[in-house]
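worker-03 picked up job from queue 'complexes'. Input manifest follows; two sequence lines, order preserved.
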Amino acid sequence: MTEILWLGRGGQGAFTAAKILGAAFALHPACHALAFPSFGPERRGAPVRAFTKLDSKPISDRSETEKADYIIILDDTLYSDALRNLLKPDGKILINTKQTENKPLIAFDGDALARELKLPVVNTVMMGALAGLSGIVSVQNLDEAIQKYMPEKIREKNKTAVRKAAEEAGTL
Amino acid sequence: MAEKFLSGDEAFAEGIRLACPEVISAYPITPQTIVVEKLSEMVEDGSLDAEFIHVESEHSALSCAMGASAAGVRAFTATSSQGLLYMAECLYYASGGRFPIVMMNANRSTALPWNIYGDQRDSLSQLDSGWIQAYAENAQESLDLALMSYYIAEHKNVSTPFMVNLDGFILTHTYEQVDVPTPEQAKAFLPAYQTENKLDLDNPKNMAFSAGPDTNYIFKYKEHAAMFRAIPVIKEAEEKFAEIFGRTYSGLLDAYRTEDAEYILITLGSIAGLCREIADTLREKSLKAGVLRIRYMRPFPAEEIVKAVSPAKAIAVLEKDISFGNEGTVFTNICSALQGGNITAPAYNFIGGLGGRNISHQDIISIFEKIQSGTAKRVNFIGIGEGENT
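worker-03 finished. Artifact:
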């Protein structure tokens, strides 16, 4: 099972990304996904977590991820070294940041791309970056999931964000 | 059928759309709100032809559904936690009046301290209210129960209201793949609601009346008997469901690797999946583990439980509930069944997940280890106070 932990702030769309990623992965016939937010009241600006679990068989374990394959951080102020304890041995942290000296973190300047595309949040940018970096899901399937589960007026922008971020991250 | 990526709440709303209730009475409460939101959108966009009635409280929500049912139409409402407790008075009216209303309850902790997260203390406190109680494990089963609940509740031998329970957040807010049947399939499965238990100008009768000491007891006995008559109807509903939708369900219980199990964990709701995974892992280490998921708390599957646990050397009951001053209520029910069935294997109660606390892999492993080694107390509190038993 591949487990992705999303860290963001209320309003950044961490859960939307967790859900779209799951929906995209589940488009394949023998692929199963589970996506859920950190439960509780929603508060803009407060730290939030979201989870995506991907597997080749139905997923019945609904507990919170204890060890992730990927941690995606939408806001770099949420990073702490303790997060590394939540990674599997070869797990990776993908972080939206301008700083480049973050190794072994994978730094990706999602804000810059979001600004360029006039997107107010970086959720789909970082989702595209994850796709480009890991190949766990194709851009085409993310496209299709956005088409199915995002409101019409923001679909095209987000599809572009995914494609561009995937291209950019593919070169990292 | 169409496959969609839905939350438990959304899947349930899809199931209700397919069941075509004529009246929906709605009062929102987290984590149920999405159900009534989705249904209001369906009524608005015309994909569900129902009266959507905003009411001022949960007490009114169920009263309104009863009024609709008394007029002879299919009614739906949904609630959670304090909302369920606030409508408690009406629960008994609905069951005593034999109104086959379906209600979804999002299982959530009860105040105080105030908490919106999932546990099962709300619905389990209402076991005696005369409602059929089912507990779903995943979003697909939630949708399927939305349809099956009407079939069972409205059956002329049953005529009893039906509460479908979904674990708050862990099920209501978790997204997964769900097969959404077509309206044609749903129509082939669920007949239109027909009843004589209604206000009818052509056949006037007294409804919701008083009954004194001479007859009241007989009405109560009939309610009790109807609950047991639901058991063959549940089977009938599931057989017809399998024919039309191709998905099978196993009645009051869902047994996993219990046939030769020496250590059986009994639980209910969405935690069962994790328990089955742990059972698989432990079997690789030669511990013969099995899991029994209770799908229906009422009617209670006493005989079925006895049969399923007969090979066990020890039994654990894991529940997100506590009856203060005693033990978990599910455990009490199960111990009664075990005693009635002359099961002598020791049974242990594990209480966890209250107020939404995560139950981890290790917690489940520990349960099996403790009942195997005989180090469990009669009542165990996962994660706190190892010694605080009764």
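worker-03 released lock.
Chain A touches chain B at residues 19, 22-23, 26, 32-37, 39-41, 59-64, 66, 145, 148-149 (CB under 8 Å).
Chain A has a mean pLDDT of 93.
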